[in-house]
Design a protein that fits this description.
heterodimer; A: 6-stranded mixed barrel; 4-stranded antiparallel beta sheet; 15 strands; B: alpha+beta; 2 domains; 6-stranded mixed beta barrel; 11 strands; 48% helix
Chain lengths: 424, 404
C-alpha cells in the first residue's frame, strides 16, 4: 500500500494538471450524485415529526368518472363519507387519522388585533398520535374535543410569539379567519420538509364535520395511517381496493364509477410524485428518471477520467514493460492500476461527500420544490447522512473507478514487454 | 491525429454523450422559456389579488342582518370602499379569477356535435378591465367587458386540446352553445380572448369567462392599483379597510408575489437542468484541458520540428484548435441522427420534457438547442485547450531539440 501511495504522490507531482483535473472531476461528480441522493433521502427518511415514515400510508384522493365517457370526470380529496367507507376499520392498521389534505392560508390575530398569515391544518386528535411533534406548552386536543369540533387550537412557537407575544400562551384566545379559538397547546416549529405533518396551526375536525364536503364522495379529507409492524402495504391496498365496489354501488344511479389508483400510498410514492387525484402515481418512471440522472453523472466523468487515466498510463508504459519483463502478471498490473485509481477516486469522493453534505445541510433552496416550502428550512443531519448514504457514496466511488479504470488497466496489462520497452 | 486515435475515440464518445444530454436539457429549457415568453394577453403588473370571505353565522364576530342588508350588500359596500381608495384604479370580483392559482374547475360548451372544454372563470366586467384582458378577435378590453355585461361568454383559444371530443374556439365564436352539454341552458359566445393562465410556464388552456350572476357571492377579488403606489396601497389596507359588515378580504397579495409561489417548481426545474448542463460542460472543459495538456507534452518534439520548419505560433495554435473542433464535428455528426431519432420516436414526450407540447421534427426548439449545444461545446473546447495550446506555442525549438 505504501508503494501505491508513493506512486500516486509521484504522479501528482509530475503530472499536476492531469492529477488535479482527475481529482476535481471525481469530487464534482460525487458531490452532485450525493446531493441528489440526499435530496431524495430527505423526502423518504424518517425524521421528527414524521418518524413513522417507514410504516406510513396516505389515502387522500378519489377519482370519479362517467362510465360511458371518461372525459367527464371529477376528482379531489375525500368527503367524510368516502373517507369512512374506504379507510375505517382496516385490518393491519395500528393508527389512523383523518385530516384535511389541503391547508388554508389563514389570518390569525388576537381578538381585535392586526392579523398575520399562517397555514392552518384541520386534523382529528389521532393526528398527534401519529406524528411526534415536540409539545412545549399545554396539551393536544382530545378525541372527544375534536369530535365535538370545539374551538381549540394547537399552534407553533413562532405563531404563538408573533400573535400572542410572550409565554404562557395556552388558555389564551386567538382569532383564526373570524372564528375564535382557545390555544390548548404549543409545539416546536415544524419543518416544511415534513410533507404531511407540516402546519402552523391545527384545529379540530372529525368525520362528523361535513363542512368541506363538495358532494357525497368528494371533499377535503385524507386518511393517514401507520400500519402494524410486519404488515405488508399490499395487504392494506387490497382491502381498500375491495371497498371501491361500495363506492361504485353508491354511484351507480348517476352512471359514474370510482377509479382505483393503487392507493393508499407509502412515503416513497408521496415523495416522488405530485399525487394528482385522477392519475395513478408512476413510481417506475420517477425511478427510471433517477437512474438516468445517476448514469449520466457517472458515465460522463467516467469517460473523461478513463481518457485521462489512459494518458497517464501511456507515460508509464516503459515502467509497465519493465515490470512485465521481470515477471509481473497481467492480473497484478490490472489490480495495481485499479487500486491506485480507486485511492484517487476515494480521495476525490471524500471531498465530494463532505462538500455535498455541507451544501445539502445549509442551502435550503435545494428543497424549494416542496409544496408549502418555507425558506430557511433545512433538514436534520440524520435525514441526510446515515450508513446508507455512506454506503452509496462508497459504491459511487467504486463504480466510477471501475468505469474509468477498467479499460485503461486492461490496455496497460496487455502490452507486450518488448513493445513497451521499445516505446518512447 | 491518427497517432492519438485511442484518446480521440474517448473524446468523441464523451462529446457525443454530452452533446445528446445537453441537447435534451436545452430543448427542455428552450421549450419552457418559449412558453414563458409567449404573449400573455393580460397585465398583472400593479395588480393585487385577494380572497373574499364571509364571517360564519356561528362566529362571535357575526353581525346579524336586517331585512335590507345581506352579505351581498356588504360585498357592494366593500367594493365601494375599495373604489374610493385613492390608490385603486379598478376592482373586480368573481370566482376562480386569480391567475397563478392551480384551480382547474372546468366546464364544457357544446355546439351541434362538437364541444369546447375550459377552465371556468366567473367574472364581473371589472375583472376584464382590471386584468386588461386582450381580445384575440380584434376587440378592446372595454368591448370584452361589455360582452360580459350582456351576459354572454368569452372563450380562449387553447394551445392544445384535452381529450378527443374537444375542439378549437373558432368553431364556437358567435354561436349559441349548450352549457355543460345541457340543451336546456343556452348561452352565447360573444368573443375569443386570451385566457388567464394558471402559471406563465403553462401553455394557454381553454378558458371560459362567464358572467358572475348578481345574486352570487364572489370568492375572489382583483384590484388594479395606481402605478408605483404599492407601498401606499398596502399601508392603506388596514383591517378596517378590508372589511364591510360580515364580508372581508383575506390573503391580499400582489400578483408578483403569487407568481413567485406558483412558479417555484418550474424555476427549480430550470435551475436543476442548468446545474446539470453546467456540470457536463465543466466535464468537457476538464476533459479537453487534461487530454490536450498531455497531448502537447507528448508532441513537444513534433511541435519543435514544425517550428524549425517555419510554422508560426499561430499555426501551432490553429492546428490544435482544428484538431479539437474536428472531434466536435465528428461527435455532432453522430449525435444529430440520434437526437432526430429520439424526436421521431417520441422519446421526449415519454420523458415528460414538454408539458402538453408535442415535439415533432418541425419543432424549432430542437434545432435551436442543437445550435446552442454545438456553440457551447465549441466555446468550452476552445477554453479547455487554450492553456495547453499556449504552452505548446511557447515551445523553444532549440531547447527541445537539444534535449533530444
Amino acid at each position: 500500500m505504501k508503494t501505491k501511495l508513493k506512486q500516486i504522490y509521484y504522479d501528482m507531482r509530475h503530472q499536476p494538471v492531469i492529477a488535479w483535473v482527475t481529482f476535481f472531476a471525481t469530487a464534482m461528480s460525487v458531490f452532485l450524485i450525493m446531493v441528489i441522493i440526499m435530496m431524495q433521502n430527505v423526502k423518504s427518511a424518517p425524521f421528527a415529526p414524521e418518524s413513522c415514515r417507514d410504516r406510513l400510508l396516505l389515502g387522500v384522493n378519489l377519482h370519479v368518472e362517467d362510465i360511458e365517457d371518461q372525459d367527464i370526470n371529477s376528482s379531489s380529496s375525500l368527503s367524510s363519507v368516502a373517507a369512512r367507507v374506504l379507510y375505517d376499520d382496516i385490518d393491519g392498521v395500528e393508527k389512523i387519522s383523518y385530516y384535511h389534505k389541503w391547508m388554508d392560508d389563514s389570518e390569525v390575530s388576537v381578538p381585535g388585533g392586526e392579523s398575520c398569515m399562517a397555514q392552518l391544518r384541520k386534523a382529528d386528535a389521532a393526528f398527534f398520535n401519529i406524528f411526534d411533534y415536540t409539545l412545549i406548552e399545554g396539551r393536544y386536543y382530545t378525541t372527544e374535543e375534536a369530535d365535538a369540533l370545539m374551538p381549540l387550537a394547537v399552534i407553533t412557537e413562532t405563531v404563538a410569539r408573533n400573535v400572542l407575544g410572550d409565554a404562557p400562551w395556552t388558555g389564551r384566545d386567538i382569532v383564526i379567519d373570524d372564528r375564535q379559538y382557545t390555544v390548548v397547546g404549543v409545539v416546536r416549529d415544524i419543518s416544511s420538509l415534513a410533507m404531511t405533518a407540516y402546519a402552523d396551526l391545527f384545529v379540530p375536525t372529525a368525520l362528523s364535520d361535513t363542512e368541506g364536503d363538495r358532494d357525497n364522495l368528494l371533499g377535503q379529507f385524507g386518511a393517514v395511517m401507520v400500519v402494524k409492524e410486519g404488515v405488508d402495504f399490499s395487504h392494506i391496498r387490497q382491502q381498500v381496493k375491495a371497498r371501491y365496489s361500495t363506492l361504485d354501488a353508491m354511484l351507480a344511479q348517476s352512471g359514474m364509477r370510482a377509479v382505483y389508483h393503487e392507493g393508499p400510498y407509502e412515503q416513497e410514492v408521496i415523495s416522488n410524485d405530485d399525487l394528482y387525484s385522477n392519475v395513478t402515481p408512476d413510481l417506475t418512471s420517477a425511478k427510471r428518471m433517477h437512474l438516468i440522472i445517476y448514469a449520466i453523472l457517472l458515465l460522463v466523468p467516467a469517460v473523461n477520467l478513463s481518457s485521462m487515466l489512459h494518458s497517464r498510463l501511456s507515460r508509464r508504459i516503459r515502467e509497465i514493460g519493465i515490470r512485465r519483463a521481470f515477471g509481473c502478471t497481467r492480473k497484478r498490473i490490472i489490480a495495481d492500476v485499479i487500486i491506485e485509481n480507486f485511492i484517487v477516486t476515494l480521495l476525490g469522493g471524500a471531498v465530494g461527500v463532505v462538500t455535498g453534505v455541507i451544501f445539502a445541510a445549509t442551502y435550503s433552496g435545494l428543497y424549494n420544490d416542496y409544496e408549502n416550502f418555507r425558506y430557511g428550512d433545512t433538514p436534520v443531519m440524520g435525514a441526510l447522512l446515515n450508513w446508507q448514504t455512506v454506503g452509496v457514496a462508497l459504491l459511487v466511488c467504486f463504480i466510477l473507478n471501475i468505469f474509468s479504470a477498467a479499460l485503461p488497466a486492461w490496455y496497460a496489462s496487455s502490452l507486450k514487454p518488448v513493445e513497451a520497452l521499445n516505446s518512447k | 491525429m491518427r497517432n492519438e486515435w485511442r484518446g480521440n475515440i474517448w473524446m468523441i464518445i464523451e462529446l457525443t454523450i454530452v452533446s445528446i444530454i445537453l441537447w435534451f436539457l436545452f430543448t427542455t429549457i428552450c421549450t419552457i422559456v418559449n412558453v414563458r415568453m409567449q404573449h400573455a394577453g393580460y397585465d398583472v403588473n400593479d395588480l393585487y389579488g385577494a380572497e373574499i370571505k364571509v364571517v360564519d353565522e356561528d362566529s362571535p364576530y357575526y353581525r346579524h342582518y336586517d331585512s335590507l342588508h345581506s352579505p351581498l350588500t356588504d360585498r357592494d359596500l366593500l367594493m365601494a370602499k375599495l373604489n374610493d381608495n385613492p390608490y385603486v384604479e379598478t376592482v373586480g370580483a368573481g370566482s376562480n379569477i386569480l391567475t397563478y392559482s392551480y384551480n382547474m374547475y372546468g366546464m364544457y360548451l357544446c355546439h351541434d356535435t362538437v364541444c369546447y372544454q375550459g377552465n371556468l372563470r366567473s367574472v364581473t366586467p371589472d375583472v376584464i378591465m382590471a386584468y386588461k384582458i386582450e381580445s384575440q378577435d380584434g376587440k378592446t378590453s372595454s368591448q370584452l367587458a361589455d360582452i360580459i355585461s350582456k351576459g354572454e361568454l368569452i372563450i380562449s383559444r387553447p394551445d392544445f386540446m384535452l381529450g378527443n371530443r374537444y375542439y378549437d374556439s373558432s368553431l364556437f365564436k358567435d354561436k349559441d352553445v349548450y352549457w355543460g352539454g345541457d340543451s336546456a341552458i343556452v348561452r352565447h359566445v360573444g368573443a375569443v380572448a386570451y385566457g388567464l393562465r394558471r402559471s406563465d410556464y403553462e401553455p394557454q388552456w381553454g378558458v371560459i369567462y362567464a358572467p358572475l350572476p348578481d345574486e352570487a357571492m364572489p370568492d375572489q377579488m382583483v384590484i388594479r392599483i395606481v402605478h408605483g403606489k404599492d407601498r401606499e396601497f398596502v399601508e392603506s389596507m388596514t383591517t378596517a379597510e378590508k372589511r364591510a359588515g360580515n364580508v372581508y378580504l383575506s390573503n391580499l397579495q400582489s400578483m408578483e408575489s403569487r407568481r413567485e409561489i406558483a412558479h417555484s417548481q418550474y424555476n427549480t426545474l430550470i435551475r436543476d437542468y442548468l446545474v446539470c448542463a453546467f456540470f457536463l460542460m465543466i466535464m468537457i472543459f476538464l476533459g479537453f484541458l487534461g487530454t490536450f495538456w498531455f497531448r502537447t507534452q507528448q508532441r513537444v518534439d513534433e511541435i519543435a520540428i514544425r517550428k524549425v520548419n517555419g510554422a508560426t505560433r499561430r499555426d501551432i495554435m490553429r492546428r490544435l484548435v482544428s484538431e479539437s473542433l474536428m472531434l466536435l464535428a465528428v461527435s455532432t455528426l453522430i449525435a444529430i441522427p440520434v437526437e432526430l431519432l429520439a424526436v421521431h420516436y417520441g422519446l421526449l414526450d415519454d420523458l415528460n420534457v414538454t408539458y402538453y407540447h408535442v415535439v415533432t421534427l418541425t419543432t424549432p426548439e430542437i434545432y435551436q438547442s442543437m445550435a446552442m449545444t454545438v456553440g457551447f461545446l465549441a466555446l468550452l473546447i476552445l477554453a479547455g485547450i487554450w492553456f495547453p495550446a499556449s504552452k505548446a506555442m511557447n515551445v523553444c525549438p532549440a531547447q527541445v531539440l537539444k534535449d533530444q
